[in-house]
């Protein structure tokens, strides 16, 4: 998505409704706030390694860091760390810190999977992952009971108040069970943890590869410790200047709209699509209209009404990787064949936000929404921007997760990384999650950064395209960045058994 016309799929321009939007508008200038001191422990600790129980070729260990880096004596937390050592020690380059996003994804598991990185990278880097504070093996957030979840899409002020009250109660329940750590899940604290890991490994510099929300951790580390980076590779960039609920929701919806546009283009002619020969955009419009009238039901449950937001959720779940497109086509065909009849029952979509997601996201993002009228205005603006998918459920979850919570420690702001090495951002034009304009904005905020544009659809371009993989590998191995304006062509989904088993709906479904 973007404001530049002419996104191509297989050399054919998409319809105007699905053109990728270009660079997002810059956030209004705000005074630069002074950053807390980038302190680390005075004497670097050592990590006591042992063989990981799930993979004995990988080392596991822990590192103790302060909960509050500005006041180290106020308590500590043990971070779970994993290291897959370079398989060719003679050609070893150094340490590659990795993070899979989430927010809240396990860096330990990512390291156990070698971050899906190529053989060449595994040969020459120690791949090091860690569970960010408050997740996985790093004292995972715990929350008490908060009662029945309210509607995720309030219809009036009373329901808005219930939603806000619920999110406030969720914060209190997580704070009570997790303790002070719950107030220090921000990327600034995690970046300092990353530097403590670097010091514990005895490395003067580290390289970083982050995906999705992990790119924000990489950017924050580059802000605080730019001279301690050898390389910075960001795959699917978060943009910390998106400073209003409306802009965030609109950006997310446009990304999902662009992703569905590429699906529709593929579906028209692919033998793997159950809607082959049909206009999938018109099919979706018809289903949305039926959902509005209450004449669609859940697949496999004739008594459960299917809402328009449920359709958007179905599309989002199938947009992270084109390998899911065949299944999406089958689902849409099945819905289209349902008899037109009024479905009387149906459970409203309720809040699904968990305490980890909200705790991390709302430490660095703030979306002040006064009342139901303001939230309804965001919904209306989002629908105008993405008339076919209407909204992105993930964008909606993000902006409503922070209602009723304390102010973010480090809310959206203008920022500019200084003194970092030449860096690389890679992004799909039809990424439904970390949308393309965010990649453009991030590239402009890190001097000497190159943007590699993947012309296809999906989230995490490294695993979607041999061209993207080769470019990222070349950068991490040699420091060489691609020429300005570099692109990789879209890759049609591969439905071989090996591909099908390696990716798909089991992947994390947030940032």
Compact overview of the structure:
The protein is of the alpha/beta class and 511 residues long. Helices cover 36% and strands 15% of the residues.
Strand order of the largest sheet: 3-4-5-7-6-8-9-12-13-14
Structural class by secondary-structure content:
alpha/beta
**So how many helices?**
15
Order of helices and strands: EEEEEEHHEHHEHEHHEEHHHHHEHEHEH
- In percent terms, what proportion of residues is strand? 15-25%
Distance between the termini: 17 Å
Radius of gyration: 22 Å
Q: What proportion of the residues is helical, as a percent range?
A: 25-40%
Q: Give start-end ranges of low-pLDDT stretches.
A: 1-42, 498-508
Q: What composes the largest sheet?
A: 10 strands, mixed
Report the average pLDDT across residues: 90
Beta-strand segment tally:
14
Shape, principal axes of CA atoms: globular
Could you list some keywords that capture this structure?
511 residues, 36% helix, alpha/beta, two-stranded antiparallel ribbon, 15 helices
Summarize the structure in words.
It is a single chain. By secondary structure, the protein is an alpha/beta fold. 36% of the residues lie in helices and 15% in strands. The protein is built from 15 helices and 14 strands. It has helices at residues 107-112, 119-124, 157-178, 187-200, 213-224, 245-269, 280-293, 308-317, 325-336, 355-364, 372-385, 393-401, 436-445, 466-478, 497-502; strands at 8-9, 12-13, 50-52, 55-66, 76-84, 94-99, 125-130, 206-211, 229-235, 297-298, 301-305, 423-430, 449-457, 487-488. It has a ten-stranded mixed beta sheet with strand order 3-4-5-7-6-8-9-12-13-14, with helices on both faces. A two-stranded antiparallel ribbon has the order 1-2. Helix 4 (187-200) crosses helix 5 (213-224), helix 6 (245-269) runs parallel beside helix 11 and helix 6 packs antiparallel against helix 12 (393-401).
């Amino acid at each position: 998505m973007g404001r530049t016309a002419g996104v191509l799929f297989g050399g054919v321009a998409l319809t105007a409704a699905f053109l990728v939007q270009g660079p997002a508008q810059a956030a209004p200038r705000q005074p630069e706030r002074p950053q807390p001191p980038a302190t680390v422990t005075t004497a670097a600790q050592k990590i006591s390694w042992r063989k990981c129980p799930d993979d004995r070729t990988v080392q596991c260990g822990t590192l103790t860091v302060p909960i509050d880096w500005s006041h180290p004596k106020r308590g500590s937390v043990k971070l779970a760390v994993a290291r897959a050592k370079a398989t060719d020690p003679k050609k070893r380059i150094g340490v590659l810190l990795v993070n899979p996003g989430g927010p809240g994804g396990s860096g330990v598991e990512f390291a156990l999977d070698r971050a899906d990185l190529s053989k060449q990278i595994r040969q020459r880097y120690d791949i090091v992952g860690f569970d960010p504070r408050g997740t996985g093996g790093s004292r995972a957030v715990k929350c008490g009971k908060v009662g029945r979840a309210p509607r995720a899409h309030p219809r009036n002020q009373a329901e808005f108040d219930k939603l806000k009250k619920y999110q406030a109660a969720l914060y209190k329940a997580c704070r009570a069970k997790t303790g002070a750590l719950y107030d220090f899940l921000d990327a600034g604290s995690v970046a300092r943890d990353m530097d403590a890991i670097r010091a514990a490994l005895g490395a003067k510099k580290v390289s970083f590869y982050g995906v999705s929300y992990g790119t924000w951790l990489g950017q924050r580390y580059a802000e605080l410790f730019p001279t301690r980076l050898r390389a910075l590779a960001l795959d699917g960039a978060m943009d910390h200047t998106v400073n209003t609920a409306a802009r965030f929701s609109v950006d997310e919806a446009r990304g999902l709209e662009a992703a569905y546009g590429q699906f529709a283009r593929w579906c028209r002619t692919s033998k793997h699509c159950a809607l082959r020969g049909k206009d999938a955009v018109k099919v979706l419009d018809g289903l949305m209209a039926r959902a509005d009238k209450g004449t669609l039901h859940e697949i496999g449950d004739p008594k459960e009404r299917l809402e328009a937001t449920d359709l958007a959720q179905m599309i989002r779940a199938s947009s992270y990787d084109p390998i899911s497109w065949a299944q999406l086509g089958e689902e849409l065909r099945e819905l289209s064949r349902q008899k037109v009849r009024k479905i009387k029952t149906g459970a409203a979509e309720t809040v699904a936000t968990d305490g980890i997601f909200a705790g991390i996201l709302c430490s660095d993002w703030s979306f002040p929404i006064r009342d139901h009228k303001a939230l309804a205005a965001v919904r209306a603006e989002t629908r105008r921007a993405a008339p076919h998918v209407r909204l992105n459920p993930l964008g909606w979850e993000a902006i409503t997760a922070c209602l009723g919570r304390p102010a973010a420690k480090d809310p959206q702001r203008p920022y500019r990384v200084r003194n970092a090495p030449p860096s690389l951002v890679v992004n799909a034009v039809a990424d439904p999650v970390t949308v393309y304009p965010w990649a453009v904005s991030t590239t402009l905020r890190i001097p000497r950064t190159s943007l590699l544009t993947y012309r296809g659809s999906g989230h995490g371009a490294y695993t979607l395209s041999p061209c993207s993989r080769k470019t990222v590998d070349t950068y991490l191995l040699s420091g060489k960045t691609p020429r300005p304006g570099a692109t990789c062509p879209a890759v049609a989904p591969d439905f071989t058994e090996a591909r099908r088993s390696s990716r798909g709906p089991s992947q994390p479904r947030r940032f």
